[in-house]
Amino acid sequence: MPEWLQAGLWGLFAGGALVLGASIGYAVKLPQKIIAGIMAFGSGVLISALSFELMGEAYHQAGLIPTAIGFFAGAIMYSGANGLLSRMGAKHRKRSSGQPSEDDVEGSGSAIAVGALLDGIPESITIGLTMLAGGGVSVATVAAIFISNIPEGLSSSAGMKTAGRSPSYIFGIWSVIALLSGLAALAGYSLFANLSLEVQAATTALAAGAILSMLVETMIPEAFEGTNNWAGLITCAGFICAFALSMLGG
User: Fold this and answer.
1) CB of 248 within 8 A of CB of 139?
2) Which of 8, 11, 22 is nearest to 167 (CA)?
3) CA separation, residue 25 to residues 59, 98, 151 (Å)
4) Among 39, 109, 115, 212, whose CB has the most other CB atoms within 10 angstroms?
5) Cβ neighbourhood burial of 34 (10 Å; 0-12, 13-18, 19+)
6) What is the pLDDT of residues 77-136, one digit of tens each?
C-alpha cells in the first residue's frame, strides 16, 4: 500500500475517535465529573505526544531555531483564530455544558463547527509529517490523538445536545471532521515530502504549538472545572501512559 494512502487511513482512524466519542456523549448522560476526568486524561496524553513525538522529532530534524519559530507561529495562529471564533459563539465548544444555542447566539452553530475543525486538523497533519520523519507511522502519535479525540467528541457532543443541536448537526460535524482528518494526514505526508527538513520540522512544531494552545484554551478549563484538585493527577496519568507508549514504541 502506498505510504500516502497509509497516512490518510491512519488520519481517518484517529479522526474516527471523534465520532466514537460523540456517539457516547450523545447516547449516555455521564456526570460532568466523569467527562472532565476523561478530558484531563486526554489532555495529559496530548501534552506527552507533542513534547516527545512532535517537538522532540522537530528538534532532531532541524535544530532549535526552526522548531521554536514553528512552535510560536502555531500558537499565535491558533490563539488568534480561537479568539475570533469565541466572539462568534464558539468559546465553550468543548464544554459538556454551557454551550450557546442558535437562539442565544446567532451563527454560533457555524462557529462551533469551524472551531471543531480548527481543533482537529493540526493533530491529523502531524500523522503524515511523522511518517516522513520516521519512514513509517508513529504508533504513539496515532494512539495519543485517538485517545484524546474520544473525550473531545464526548464532551462537545454532550454540550451540543444540551444546547438543543440536532443529531444530524452533531454527527454531521464529527463525521466531516473525521474525513478531513484523513485528508489532513494525507496532505501532511504528500505536500511536505519534497520540502526541506527545516520546513518539515517547523510545520511539525507549528502543529505542536497549535495543539498546546488548544489544550490550554479549550480542554484543560473543562477538565479543571469538573475535577478541581484531581485534574493534575489525572492529567499526569494520561501523560505517563503516552510517555510509556512513546518510549516502548521507540
Assistant:
1) no
2) 22
3) 38, 15, 9
4) 39
5) middle
6) 999 999 998 888 888 787 777 677 767 776 677 788 788 888 888 889 999 988 887 667
pTM above 0.90, yes or no: no
The answer for 107, left when phi > 0, alpha when psi is -120 to 50, beta otherwise, is: left
Residue 50 identity (one-letter amino acid): L
Amino acid identity for residue 108 in this structure: S
CB atoms within 10 A of CB 240: 13
Find, among 179, 80, 167, 183, the residue nearest to 127 by Cα: 183
Three-class DSSP labels, the chain: CCHHHHHHHHHHHHHHHHHHHHHHHHHCCCCHHHHHHHHHHHHHHHHHHHHHHHHHHHHHHHCHHHHHHHHHHHHHHHHHHHHHHHHHHHCCCCCCCCCCCCCCCCCHHHHHHHHHHHHHHHHHHHHHHHHHHHCCCCHHHHHHHHHHHHHHHHHHHHHHHHCCCCHHHHHHHHHHHHHHHHHHHHHHHHCCCCCCHHHHHHHHHHHHHHHHHHHHHHHHHHHHHHHHHHHHHHHHHHHHHHHHHHHHHC
Cα–Cα distance for residue pair 170/126, rounded to 1 Å: 25
74 has a pLDDT exceeding 90 = yes
Answer for the pair 66, 202: CB distance below 8 angstroms, yes or no: yes
